[in-house]
Design goal:
The protein is an alpha+beta fold. It has 2 domains: 79 residues; 127 residues, Histidine kinase-like ATPase, C-terminal domain (Heat Shock Protein 90, 2-Layer Sandwich). It is built from 6 helices and 7 strands; from the N terminus they run αααβαββαββαββ. Strand 6 and strand 7 form a beta hairpin.
């Protein structure tokens, strides 16, 4: 009987702790809950992007390794001609610079640093290029309609929101689709829309299982709320409106 009573007591204590945790969560200020939701969404976006980010980080490092092996093999066969040796070293140096640039670009997704403006066209291209391999594998045809404009938006705001919208809509799709991304400047605001529609051919995509959880509309909402971005949602599309980026970092503000 003592064992049963102890189990009941432990169960009651666990239940009390769960109730207390639920009450604490309910009592948390709305601002704190919204920030937690946005951070969870950002983490989800990065986890879904992890394979693409890893690929972009190592591809140039692999090229350096291969080039070093080739150069080592030539040295073992005998000293190469000075011109050939210098050409190989120059190529290694170029590959190293490209590898550093790629790593810094990947790091900017993990730690944005100072918020900076990015041209709307470039920002959309950054997001679509990371998802290109995944979408091709799953049978999604991606098209974009983005005019070449000098209009800039916040890179920190655009990246997670656009990627989350793309992944959310494609995760909810029943099969391979056409994905159309459109961006334009309307009344001084950037309007970016993502729309999906079933493919008109009989293409069968390969089986796909997300490397992390699927993203949902609540994730997109949390990110938009955190950045004060207006969202419009339909069954097959998401539209976001964001303001022009305003330079506030010392190095971004041009001297008068």
């Amino acid at each position: 009987m003592a064992v049963v009573a102890g189990s009941s007591t432990a169960g009651a204590a666990a239940s009390d702790r769960q109730s207390a945790a639920a009450n604490d969560a309910a009592a948390s200020p709305p601002g704190r809950r919204s920030r937690a939701g946005a951070e969870a969404a950002r983490y989800g976006v990065l986890r879904r992007l992890a394979p693409a980010l890893k690929h972009d980080m190592v591809v140039n490092l692999q090229a350096i390794s291969m080039m070093a092996e080739v150069l080592n093999a030539r040295l073992e066969r005998g000293s190469p001609a000075p011109a050939e040796f210098h050409a190989s070293i120059s190529k290694l140096n170029r590959l190293a610079r490209e590898a550093v640039a790629s790593c810094l670009k990947v790091a900017s997704w993990l730690e944005p640093g100072e918020d900076e403006g990015v041209r709307l066209t470039e920002g959309v291209d950054d997001c679509l290029s990371l998802l290109a391999s995944n979408f091709n594998f799953r049978g999604f045809l991606v098209t974009q309609e983005v005019p070449d404009s000098t209009f800039q938006v916040s890179r920190v705001v655009l990246r997670p929101l656009l990627v989350a919208s793309l992944i959310t809509l494609t995760d909810a799709a029943q099969g391979p689709c056409e994905v159309h991304v459109k961006a334009e400047v309307v009344s001084g605001m950037a309007e970016v829309s993502v729309r999906i529609s079933p493919r008109k051919d009989e293409f069968q995509g390969l089986p796909f299982e997300a490397n992390y959880r699927e993203l949902e509309w609540q994730d997109v909402q949390a990110l938009a709320l955190a950045e004060s971005v207006e969202l419009v949602r339909g069954n097959d599309h998401i539209l976001m409106r964001m303001p022009r980026a305003i330079a506030n970092a010392p190095l971004q503000i041009a001297p008068v």
